[in-house]
Amino acid sequence: MKRIHAIIHGKVQGVFFRATARDKARALELKGFVRNLPDGSVEIEAQGETALIEVFLRWCHNGPPQARVEKVCVNWKPIEEDLLDFHIQG
């Protein structure tokens, strides 16, 4: 099990990025959250099986069809707490 903190840059707000990230993460049985940041980027905390996190990160490099992802900054972290689900914050 691993945990990531990621910031997604580009045209990622107003394009259903959060909703589709939530749906993708839930389909992969990941736990965590996604939220918009004031600078126009999207923040994600996700934890789960390492291989499934990697699948999710590959998706994050493209996002939904309306998005234009320019950069994904990822930090791998140890599991800090047990999360119950994957949800949209804010």
Query: Could you say how many structural domains there are in total?
Result: 1
Query: What is the name of the CATH class?
Result: Alpha Beta
> For the CA atoms, what is the radius of gyration?
12 Å
Strand order of the largest sheet: 4-1-3-2-5
On the 0 to 100 scale, the average pLDDT is 96
What is the number of strand segments? Answer: 5
Find the structural class using helix and strand composition: alpha+beta
Per DSSP, what share of the residues sits in E-state strands of 2 or more residues? 35-45%
Termini separation: 26 Å
In the CATH hierarchy, the architecture is: 2-Layer Sandwich
Instruction: Give the overall shape.
Output: globular
Low-confidence runs (pLDDT<50, min 5 residues)?
A: none
The major β-sheet equals: 5 strands, mixed
Quaternary organisation: single chain
Describe the structure.
This protein has 90 residues and is an alpha+beta fold. It has a single domain, classed as Alpha-Beta Plaits (2-Layer Sandwich). It is 24% helix and 40% strand. It is built from 2 helices and 5 strands. A 5-stranded mixed beta sheet has the order 4-1-3-2-5. Strand 2 and strand 3 form a beta hairpin. The chain is globular and about 30 Å long. The model has no long low-confidence stretch (mean pLDDT 96).
